[in-house]
Design goal:
Blueprint: E1 5-8, H1 10-14, H2 24-37, E2 41-45, H3 51-63, E3 72-78, H4 81-91, E4 97-104, H5 107-114, H6 118-135, E5 139-144, H7 151-163, E6 168-173, H8 180-193, E7 201-206, H9 213-222, E8 227-230, H10 244-253, H11 255-258, H12 269-280, H13 301-309, E9 329-331, H14 337-346, H15 353-369, E10 373-374, H16 375-387, E11 394-401, E12 409-416, E13 419-426, H17 430-442, E14 446-455, E15 464-472, E16 475-483, H18 486-501
Parallel strand pairs: 1-2, 1-8, 2-3, 3-4, 4-5, 5-6, 6-7, 7-8
Antiparallel strand pairs: 9-10, 11-12, 12-13, 14-15, 15-16
Helix pairs in contact: 2-3, 2-12, 3-4, 4-6, 6-7, 8-9, 12-16, 15-16, 17-18
The structure holds 3-methyl-2-oxobutanoic acid and zinc ion (ZN).
3-methyl-2-oxobutanoic acid binds near residues 13, 142, 172 and 174.
Length: about 525
């Protein structure tokens, strides 16, 4: 069947961008939702880069890659043979495993990064693909920095790796340098120049440094690419990767032009986007195509008038096509545990046992404070249950005095295992006072680098969600907290960051050569 294979790299290229790191439980939650979205390939991690990445990739392979109708689970590896061994160790549990190996082919990378000759790199690429094929029939190869590589040399490498069994050839615009017209030509010329190209699927992987990632991906499809690598919300290194939702909806909405579609269940797009924002604490801008808050909002009177008369006047897609319902009231204070579990499952959270008990208690507490409980509220309250950050510190008590004309002060009690610690602090506002009180207990002076507060839904009784970044003595960690009381949400986010700081830092090796 002629369709575009959607290769999702949210958990690998997306996750490796600063501020987007996810632990194993969070990656698993995302991977389950990506499977519901029906992507064809999930690139789950870069197993050699850290023990945490290895474990996350292996768990995605075991727990998502074995489901009925599971997607291909892919791991990234440099061309070093030990990288490939490690990658295979992680992905081998999946029903459909893939090894994705890469090496740079541009002279800039060869000279300054790899310090290798063209012949040495070609040989390393061929050896790597042969080695990977010894493990697995599904091997992808990428010539990194393809958009700045010498065309003939890169094609020689591609021909050689296809010759030893690479089944997907992925052409990355690693630095987001390409412009659609020349990118389209390059992809078209690869198909003419590489003699055995029909033995492999041609793929593209575009970064967004010049804002062209989606356009470059789409013109590549027009010129014969049949796999597109992309991420949810377009997250990724620097300016990000091509956005999955934009590619999928462009192909679907303009099928008249492209004549080809994907297998993605578009009704899962909005939920997937929101789940990622909840997990990472990074929200998309309101005007983001497809999934932004305003993407379907018609403000101008003339537009509203047109839409009321006939939606087609200003709407090229329907909100329901991406699974977007208006903030739906889902539960009330009389809703039971089973109803909560069922709704959470629909939202992508598969909770049971003690996790469900905790979520149910939080839901009941919230339903007592807040008349209406929406999907977004539910996602916020369960998020903490999913992350499984060991709770070195737990917030037990917070008392804040603040107002006009007084110095804000706070008293905080934290539990650390069986011990309880209490201290107080003052500050230039109640949040500052509460965080200073926490610092007084831990003896660590955190420097707040970023602080964002957002109401999860409308209404004065909305939950406030705080996402922050703190520098604890050179280690920058993010934290999240939510409550109907925004000072408490801030203290919870800060304690969450403290608990993350207590975890060992992952070692990332992306920059090293083969
Ligand atoms: O951007 C890039 O070149 C990559 C490769 C590893 C495919 O992410
Ligand atoms: Zn990339």
């Amino acid at each position: 069947m002629d369709r575009v294979i959607i290769f999702d790299t949210t958990l690998r290229d997306g996750e490796q961008a600063p501020g987007f790191s996810m632990n194993t439980a969070e990656k698993l939650e995302m991977a389950r939702q990506l499977a519901r979205l029906n992507v064809d390939v999930i690139e789950a991690g870069f197993p050699i880069s850290s023990d945490e990445d290895f474990e996350a990739t292996r768990e995605v392979a075991k727990q998502v890659g074995t489901l009925e109708g599971a997607p291909i689970i892919c791991g990234l590896s440099r061309v070093a043979l030990r990288d490939i061994d490690r990658c295979w160790e992680a992905v081998k549990y999946a029903k459909h495993p893939r090894i994705h190996t890469f090496v740079a082919t541009s002279d800039i990378h060869l000279k300054y990064k790899l310090r290798k000759t063209r012949d040495e790199v070609l040989k390393a690429a061929v050896d790597a693909v042969k080695h990977a094929r010894g493990y697995c029939g599904d091997v992808e190869f990428s010539p990194e920095d393809a958009s700045r590589s010498d065309f003939d040399y890169m094609c020689d490498v591609l021909e050689a790796v296809i010759g030893v069994g690479a089944s997907t050839i992925n052409i990355p615009d690693t630095v987001g340098y390409a412009i659609p017209k020349e990118w389209a030509e390059r992809i078209g010329r690869i198909r003419e120049r590489v003699k055995n190209i029909d033995k492999a699927v041609l793929s593209v992987h575009c970064h967004n440094d010049l804002g062209q990632a989606v356009a470059n991906s789409l013109v590549a499809v027009m010129h014969g690419a049949r796999q597109v690598e992309c991420t949810i919300n377009g997250i990724g290194e620097r300016a990000g990767n091509a956005s999955l939702e934009e590619i999928v909806m462009a192909l679907r909405t303009r099928r008249d032009l492209f004549g080809i579609d994907t297998g993605v269940r578009s009704e899962e797009i909005f939920r997937t986007s929101r789940l990622l924002s909840h997990i990472t604490g990074v929200h998309v801008q309101p005007n983001k195509a497809i999934v932004g808050e305003n993407a379907f909002a018609h403000e101008a009177g003339i537009h509203q008038d047109g839409v009321l008369k006939e939606k087609l006047t200003y709407e090229i897609m329907r909100p329901q096509d991406i699974g977007r319902s208006s903030n739906k009231l889902v539960m009330g204070k009389h809703s039971g545990r089973h109803a909560l579990a069922a709704r959470l499952k629909e939202l992508g959270f598969d909770l049971s046992g003690p996790d469900l008990d905790k979520a149910f208690k939080k839901f009941k507490d919230l339903a007592d404070k807040k008349k209406e409980v929406y999907d977004e509220d539910l996602m916020t309250i369960v998020q903490g249950e999913m992350t499984q950050i060991p709770e070195t510190y737990a917030l037990e008590y917070l008392h804040v005095i603040s107002g006009t004309g007084i110095i804000p002060s706070a008293t905080v009690r934290l539990r650390k295992e069986a011990e309880v610690f209490q201290d107080s602090g003052v500050g230039d506002g109640p949040v500052d006072a509460a965080l200073n009180a926490i610092d007084a207990i831990t003896g660590l002076k955190g420097r707040l680098q970023d602080y964002q507060l957002r109401a999860i839904t409308g209404g004065k009784d909305a939950i406030g969600e705080v996402s922050l970044k703190v520098d604890f003595d050179g280690m920058v960690v993010s934290g999240k907290g939510a409550s109907t009381d925004v000072i408490e949400a801030s203290a919870r986010a800060y304690v969450n960051a403290l608990n993350r700081a207590a975890r060992p830092a992952p070692l990332k090796v992306k920059e090293a050569g083969p």
